[in-house]
Description:
Layout: H1 2-8, H2 12-44, H3 48-85, H4 88-115, H5 117-124, H6 128-141, H7 144-160, H8 165-187, H9 197-221, H10 231-235, H11 239-271, H12 275-291, H13 293-311, H14 315-351, H15 357-390, H16 394-419, H17 424-431, H18 433-448
Helix pairs in contact: 2-8, 2-12, 2-13, 3-4, 3-6, 3-7, 3-11, 3-12, 3-13, 3-15, 4-7, 5-6, 6-9, 7-9, 8-9, 11-16, 12-14, 12-15, 13-14, 13-15, 14-15, 15-17, 15-18, 16-17, 16-18
Amino acid sequence: MASLKHYLRPNPAFVKQLTFLALPIALQYLIISLLNILDVVLIEGLGDNAIAAVSLANQVNFVTTMLGFGVSSAAGAFISQYIGAGSSKGVRKTTALSFLTIGSAAVLVAAVTLSFPKMMMHIFTSDETLVQLGSRYLPIVAPTYLMTGVTTLLSTLLRCTGRPKLPLVASLVALSCNSLLNYLLIYGIGIFPRLEIAGAAVATLISRCIEIMMILLFVYRVCEKQYRPHLRDVRALDRVFAGHFYRKAVPVILNETVWGVGMAGYNMIYGRMGAAVVAAVNIASTLEQLFTVAFQGLSNATLVILGRELGAGSFSRAKLHARQICLWIWIIGALVGLGMWSLSGIFVGTLFRNVTPETAALARYVITVLAIYAPFKAFNFVNIVGVLRSGGDTFFGFMLDTTSIYCVGLPLCFLFGIVLKLPLYVVSPCVYLEEALKSIFGLRRMLTDRWARKFVKEGAYAD
């Protein structure tokens, strides 16, 4: 019992540090979620098909974003440990190599999307109406894939170097502009033309341009000079450093990319179950994003804090803090689930009055399922992204995510949704069983302490 109290009542300095990092990140994701809700509400005025088409078209961006998040997450682990080890050169080289990796992938995906938008939509749905609508959206947003990747990477750099509020400011400004432009361009308010779905795409493009310009300004005007990436850092890259980085980073990149493909796979199946199913899942996911910002903030803050401690050689402290955070997140997850379930009726009934009764009922049901699994999802977020990655235990995290999705979630979704043609009421709870199974194996791994390692080689990259 004394041990439990020790975990529940940690050092105030640690709580302050965790809050300092987690709160701005959570607020940033909260702003993104709120404005995403506004975007969906605005598009909802165009009908179920419009919601479904934009949702499916954004799966391309989602997979690319997950790849960028994977690179940035791996970079965050390296940057945090290099800061703990006192190597600013290691920080800059990590940023430079991550930029090249993200840029190459984003440009390739954007080129394919620009050239074959209908082919990309056909991957997710066989409904020609949705294909035609989505192919008007995709070519306009394709250039944002690179912007989003670079913004994610540089935001990670700012957070790791102690400036977590700056990405929050950039997101607030950019996404506010996005919502305003959505309203003006989707419906043609005042002097603006009515572009409908294309208007949503144009608004996204403009807002991403604003966001990346602000982030670049923050990095090169506010961030410490020794951490600012430069062209010479690209020229200074070598095979030894690249090999060391990719041995830890590739499992993270594959983890996020394969996870993103898996999520897109779910939407491919939902896309063949009907527009009402796609719209309902998208509505439910929108509310879930609003509540899970706490998981995202804590997971990113955990990565930074534990990475610094491991880089400085404070292994006992890192292990203690990992256990404390993982205990708290179960409690937070349960509260989040309760909040989602309590607000499901008001959320759907108030913001989505124009959807069909079938879609509204399905959305409320999916929200209930998501609420039940929220504690498991919360733990998986913090454990995989925050704890395991901070010590370079990236391959285990990759296997954990991959096997749960591709051996449990997707097969059950395909079997029940496509082969047996069962309704979403049966499919949805079976799909999310993978979160519960993932948490069991992830908890065992965290408690072994095999993840707690210092993997940076500061001697080779000393200033």
